[in-house]
Amino acid sequence: MSVTETVLVFAGIPLAIVLVISGLAALGGGHAAKRYRPGRPFEFAPVWFLAAPEQLAGAEASGSHASHGELPAGTSSHAALPAGSSTEGGGELVAAPTRIGATGGASDRW
Amino acid sequence: MTGGDKPAESGMAVRSGVLDGPFNTRQLLRLDEALRVADRSTGLTFSVYIGDLDEPVRGHAEKLHAQLADPDRSVLVAVSPNQRALEIVTGAVARKRILDREAKLAALSMVAAFGGGDLAGGVISGLDQLATHAGRSRR
After folding, report:
1. Do the bridges between strand A104-109 and strand B85-90 make them parallel or antiparallel, or are there none, so unpaired?
2. For residue A27, what pLDDT band results from cuts at 50, 70 and 90?
């Protein structure tokens, strides 16, 4: 066995194995980085999960419909009010939107 | 070949938006299953938002909740990992089924999982708890 052969076998082959394994590890590491770690910035796009996604799309459509529909209805009833009673009806009109604030739930931080 | 590629490509485009998120495919499937089971067993609409919330966090979560089809019968779980904030918003009807105390209990266990870095596990077990409470209070 010459010197060059000895170097190839005892240094070249281990070096090749190390390179292959570290290359595989670097490839695999890219996938594992895709998760949330506390304390590290969370750089993913916002996602919204629903069992039936059409409920959200329908909500946006019906929501805009409702807001478009509410305004003329409100103004028309407002216009109709002076013909009937004067101020009591106005109070009732204001009372309707307060229902929006009736949400409950909980908040927490970690 | 190109004809077969087209639907696959559009499917990829739709899916990549979700797959770019913090969850892998298995976690997405479990989350989907948890949402469907919660919806079916309670009759309420559960949804999960994961992303940044504007300050005030509570106000933004309530605004998102109001965008749902039937806010009164809906429950929104909003998670903001950057702000380390969790908000559970229940509608007027859902609030009678899931008391604020029970929502707080679910929030505590979810936050414990988030603190350990387990977003999907926390959300799934939280949904399960919320659905259990909602089902129980109905009877």
Report:
1. antiparallel
2. confident
Residues of chain B with pLDDT below 70 are: 1-19, 136-139
Give me the residue from A49, A56, A105 closest to B35, CB to CB.
Answer: A49
At residue A76, what is the residue type?
S
Minimum CA–CA partner of A104 in chain B: B90
Q: Does B19 touch chain A (CB under 8 A)?
A: no
Buried b (16+ CB within 10 A) or exposed e, B84-114: bbbbbbbbeebbebbbeebbebbbeebbebb
Are B34 and B124 a contacting pair, CB within 8 Å? yes
SS3 A48: strand
CB within 8 Å: B90 and A105: yes
Closest by Cα among B131, B103, B105, B122 to B45? B131
Three-class SS of B26-43: HHHHHHHHHHHHHHHHHC
Query: How many residue pairs bridge chain A and chain B with CB atoms within 8 Å of each other?
Result: 144
Provide the whole-model pTM. 0.66
